[in-house]
Known about the structure:
This protein has helices at about 10-25, 30-50, 55-65, 70-95, 195-200, 265, 325-330, and strands spanning about 100-105, 120-125, 125-130, 130-135, 140-145, 160-180, 200-210, 215-220, 225-235, 245-250, 255-260, 275-280, 290-305, 315, 320. It is α+β, with helices and mostly antiparallel strands. It folds into two domains: about 10-95; about 100-330, Exo-inulinase, domain 1 (Jelly Rolls), CATH 2.60.120. A hairpin with a 2-residue loop joins strand 3 (about 125-130) and strand 4 (about 130-135). Helix 2 (about 30-50) packs antiparallel against helix 3 (about 55-65). The longest helix is centred in the N-terminal third of the chain and has 26 residues, at about 70-95. The protein is globular, with a radius of gyration of 25 Å. Residues about 1-10, about 40-60, about 95 and about 315-334 have low confidence and may be disordered.
Amino acid sequence: MAILRNTDLQFIFHLTLRRISFTILGWSDEALDAYRSHLNVVRFFVALFFKMNFADYTILAGGFTMNQAKNSAGRWIFVLAAVWVSTHLIAQTQVQAQKILFEDNFDKSKDKLDGTGKWHTVSGSWSIRQGRLVQGQANGKALILVSDEHWDEAWNSYWFYATIKLTGGTSPLIFWRFHSDEGGGFGAENDLPPRMQESLRRHLIYWVLNRNGQKSVVHRSIRHVTKDFEKTETRTKLDRGIDYWIKIENAKQSYRLFLTDNGAAAVAGDYGPPLVDVKDININGEGRIGFGTEDARIEVDNVFVTAPEENPFAVEAQGKLTTTWGRLKYGEVR
């Protein structure tokens, strides 16, 4: 049943059902009277916290506890306690259901990017400014990867989300399935995260966006053999100063790439049709994520790695309301 009833008839019907439930469970008329008087209060709190259909559970809990109270003040205390306990348990269930493997919204400007925090800088000039990850080096190549501590090398089926803005130059790079290849031209082997330096796997893959301002394509480097994956080429271009919302659906033997400049649609889970949808059996889908540039400056935000089928913007993730970080940070989402 919905939290807020549209008609008196529905409301009366709801109360009748509750009266039957109370009778079957042996609850008193006092509890039912308290239930009637505090029903809207309970609904208000539930709607405030969740705007979802958890009211029935909370109302029943409130009705039961009010049966234990013998005065008005006691009823208020019990009903508010019931609401708090119910909503807390529901919140815990929601967080557990939402499988977030990795996330960063760059709200902590003092987070280190040297491998001791969430990120490991391989090359370039990376910093956190005004709630975004920024690469400010205009020329050459730059790369930053998730640190050893925050990545599980066994992850091979995940969805990778990010928001990226081109602020100068031409080509942002989106990395996933990254396995060393001795730096792949983005730095020396000893510049890589320590665990990656010890790996014998030599493979990396990244999405080159806006190459020469003309196209986008996936580029692969396998044991120093580097080339474009031709079937992934599209005429996708990026404009400077625009936030682009990216989703990569990575599976063991395939991946799909999405990009949109419609932030409101992306938050709702609508990225449109995939720009790239290919089979690729290399390294069984494993490898970590990161960002890079070729002669470009970029800003990155809203980074998530989730279990497949998850929309991290739709629910509360790890205690932070991520309904739309764009709205929370900047007042609106395009």
